[in-house]
Specification:
There is one protein chain. It is globular, with a radius of gyration of 20 Å. The termini are far apart. The protein is an alpha/beta fold. The model has no long low-confidence stretch (mean pLDDT about 95). The protein contains nine helices and 17 strands. Strands 6-5-2-7-11-10-12 form a seven-stranded mixed β-sheet.
Length: about 290
C-alpha cells in the first residue's frame, strides 16, 4: 500500500468549449448544485486526509488566489497554459510529485473517490455502452492498461483523477524532462506521453460506476446535470443575448466558442428557436448567421 503524499489539481486551461461562461470565469470556479467545482474537490481530498494540495493555474490565475487562505492550498501559475498542453502543468510541479493524485479541476464526484492509502497507480474509468469518442482502454488479465485508443465501442474509457506511485512519478518526470524541449511535445497531453511509453509503466484501470464521475465539456451538458442553469447560467453574456432576443435563457442552446487569430475566445455561437447567432464579446453585438 502507498500512503498518499499530496495531490495536484490542474486548473490552467481556458475550457473554451464551455463558452460563454468560461469567458467570464474559469470553469473550475463555477457553482454546480450549490458548490464551486474546485472547492468541492479540495474538500473531498481534505476529508480523505490529504492536505498537501497544489493547484496549477493559468487562465485567469488571480481568480484562484482566494483558495490559498480559504483552504490552505499551494498555487503555482503555468504561464505557458495557452501555448502548451497540460503536460506543462505536470512539468511545473515535477519537484513535488511522489505518491500523488493528479486531478482535473472540472471533475464532479458524487461520491468521494479519494483515500489516504492506495494499492497501485491507476487511471479512473467509466464504461461506455455503444459507440464513444473517448480515450478507450484495454487491459491484461491483471487489470493493467495495455492499450489506449481514441474512440471505441462498449469500452472502459479515461475519465477523472489518477494516482501515481512515487516510482511512476519518478519515471514519468524523467521522460518529461527528456522530451519537454522537443517541438512535437508542445501539443501533447500528459496522457499522450504516457501512451507513447506505455510499455514502461504499470498502471491499472480503476473502474467507477455510472453516475459517480462527471465532466461537463459544454454548458449544454451541465444543464442536464444542474437544471438551474437552464433558466439562469449566471452569465452576463447570456443575460445580454436573452435581452436582445427578448427570450428567456432556456431558449438559448448549442453554444460554441468563436476564437480569434491568437486562439483567444472572442465570441460565442449559439442557437435560438432554430436560428443560429454569433455574439462578439468586445462589441456586444449579436448577428444572425446566414
Amino acid at each position: 500500500m502507498f500512503k498518499v503524499d499530496n495531490a495536484v489539481i490542474m486548473a490552467a486551461g481556458t475550457s473554451s468549449r464551455f463558452a460563454p461562461i468560461s469567458y467570464e470565469r474559469p470553469k473550475a470556479l463555477i457553482e454546480v448544485r450549490g458548490e464551486v467545482l474546485i472547492e468541492r474537490q479540495i474538500r473531498q481530498l481534505q476529508e480523505a486526509g490529504i492536505n498537501d494540495i497544489y493547484i496549477v493555474t493559468g487562465y485567469r490565475a488571480a481568480d484562484f488566489d482566494y483558495l490559498k487562505e480559504k483552504y490552505g492550498v499551494k498555487i503555482r501559475e503555468n504561464t505557458l497554459y495557452n501555448i502548451r498542453n497540460n503536460h506543462s502543468s505536470i512539468y511545473l510541479v515535477r519537484d513535488v510529485l511522489k505518491n500523488s493524485y493528479i486531478c482535473s479541476a472540472d471533475n464532479y464526484f458524487t461520491v468521494n473517490p479519494f483515500s489516504l492509502e492506495i494499492e497501485e497507480s491507476y487511471y479512473s474509468a467509466l464504461y461506455s455502452e455503444g459507440e464513444t469518442s473517448e480515450w478507450c482502454m484495454t487491459c491484461d488479465e491483471e487489470g493493467y492498461i495495455k492499450n489506449v485508443v481514441v474512440g471505441g465501442r462498449d469500452s472502459w474509457y479515461m475519465l477523472g483523477h489518477v494516482f501515481w506511485s512515487e516510482e511512476f512519478s519518478k519515471h514519468f518526470v524523467e521522460i518529461l524532462e527528456r522530451e519537454y524541449a522537443l517541438p512535437e511535445t508542445n501539443n501533447k497531453l500528459w496522457e499522450d506521453i504516457f501512451i507513447d511509453h506505455l510499455d514502461e509503466f504499470k498502471m491499472k484501470i480503476h473502474k467507477y460506476k455510472d453516475g459517480e464521475i462527471y465532466e461537463f465539456d459544454t454548458l449544454d451538458e451541465l444543464r442536464k446535470f444542474d437544471k438551474s442553469y437552464i433558466t439562469d447560467a449566471r452569465s452576463n453574456v447570456l443575460d445580454d443575448i436573452a435581452d436582445i432576443l427578448r427570450v428567456s435563457q432556456k431558449e438559448l442552446n448549442h453554444f460554441k466558442c468563436i476564437k480569434g487569430k491568437g486562439n483567444e475566445a472572442v465570441g460565442v455561437e449559439l442557437e435560438c428557436k432554430g436560428m443560429v447567432y454569433s455574439y462578439d464579446y468586445k462589441t456586444k453585438k449579436l448577428e444572425l448567421k446566414g
